Amino acid sequence: MADYTKMWTGLGLDLDNHDALLENLGGAYQSIFMSQKHRPEAMGYFDFVMSEAHGLRIKELREEQEAGRKIIGSFCVFVPEEIILAAGCTSVGLCSGADFAQEEVEKVLPRNTCSLIKSFFGFSLAKVCPYMEVSDLIVGENTCDGKKKAFETFKEMVPNFYQMDMPQNKAPMGRKLLTHEFKSFLAKLEEMTGKKITKKDLQEGIATVNAKRAALSRLAKLRAADPCPISGLDALLINQIAFLDNPARFTEKLNALCDELEVLVKEKKGAIAKNAPRILISGCPMAIPNWKVPAIIEATGAVIVGEESCIGERGQRNTTDDSADTLEGLIDAVVDRYFKIDCAVFTPNQERVEHIKEMTKNYNADGVIHYGLQFCQPYIMESFSVEKLLEKDGISIMRLETDYSQEDMGQLSTRVEAFVEIIK
Ligand code: BJ8
């Protein structure tokens, strides 16, 4: 990586903390990703993106800012990228996938807060996330209780916070609330940019995001093959990078990877051996650089064939209908698309278990590992009914609860190995 010290200093990063984070991440990436065998050649691009995630990509975002674009950071797949692009802005996901500055975090948040929330507090307090620092606006959403209460504190820590309300059920009133929130968000972006969003702008935003989602769905379908042409770790990484990279370039590179995977499938070549036990992961999002559980699973020789997760199919399934001929109609279509997301903060949330069953079938999974972050009430509570309903259909499932620490690695490995033995 080139020397970006000046840029990082300009962003207000704490260079010592940031060096420590990069050193840690670099080591983890080498041992988890680069040690894999039979990786598709086109993964080279995604390795490059990762190696420059705090360098070249941030430089690009700074250049976009200098040219007048605003950078919008967010924590949730409910924040509509189509509208952000329509406003001439750029969307970035704010990672939240690693522990940092835990002692400082526990001075402002209770200990029994999920790791994801603690993570973005830690990144902010320790000044180590260039995406957070480069963002002109940070959007928080009232999804789970943990996030919405934590945002009350977080908005005092950053100068540019915007809060979006969220429905808790899929009744008509819920849809009305989401429509209201998306329109307010659109108005906020118009006010920030001084640009009036037109029908054409939104159509273009929808087209860009639809193309990205279509490429991700193409990747997902290719994983149904046995042998699987790509490891679950690499597929997860691509889903994580989808939140950071330039969307048009990402789509082009992902389609190139899918072209290569199609050939591998035809030639019956896999990244992981044929007949390897096939696992579907379901549950809390695995934000970058959270690779702990997938690394444990694939170390057993099993392959992860899908993620029922917001960093995965729950967040990316469904494209937006672009056929409306008014701006109002297109906004409605965006709302329709997002209102289908079956996050566990909704009650009831029956669609989610149906999706898990559907994915198990479509990707020929032998079993499901339900991944819950400790203290995440929505997903952990829901995991009990998910378990019951999957077992009723004869689908093997194991529920795991963990955090971002490495302390339970041994215990998790033992449990995952035992589960893989059972489903073999
Ligand atoms: S749409 S899953 S990205 S809210 S893990 S912070 S739920 S206590 S992240 Fe999510 Fe949007 Fe839903 Fe998806 Fe709370 Fe649970 Fe923590 Fe969570």
> Which percent bin holds the helix content?
55-70%
Could you report the average pLDDT, rounded to the nearest whole number?
97
Outline = globular
Largest sheet: 4 strands, parallel
Question: What is the CA-CA span between the terminal residues?
Answer: 43 Å
H/E order of the elements? Answer: HHHHEHEHHHEHEHHHHEHEHHHEHEH
The side-by-side strand order for the widest beta sheet comes to: 2-1-3-4
Number of helices: 19
Strand content: 5-15%
Count of distinct strands: 8
Radius of gyration: 21 Å
Bound molecule types: Double cubane cluster
Class from helix and strand fractions: alpha/beta
**Unreliably modeled segments:** none
How would you describe this structure in keywords?
424 residues, binds Double cubane cluster, four-stranded parallel sheet, 10% strand, alpha/beta, 8 strands
Task: Outline the structure in words.
The protein is an alpha/beta fold. The protein has helices at residues 5-11, 15-34, 43-51, 56-66, 81-86, 102-108, 115-126, 130-134, 145-157, 172-193, 199-222, 232-241, 247-266, 292-299, 313-316, 327-339, 350-362, 377-392, 409-423; strands at 71-74, 90-93, 137-141, 161-164, 278-283, 303-308, 367-373, 396-402. The strands form two sheets. A four-stranded parallel β-sheet has the order 2-1-3-4, sandwiched between helices. Strands 6-5-7-8 form a four-stranded parallel β-sheet, sandwiched between helices. The radius of gyration is 21 Å and the shape is globular. The chain starts with a helix and ends with a helix. Double cubane cluster binds at residues 76-78, 114, 116-117, 143-144, 146-147, 284-285, 310, 341, 343, 345, 373, 376, 378-379.
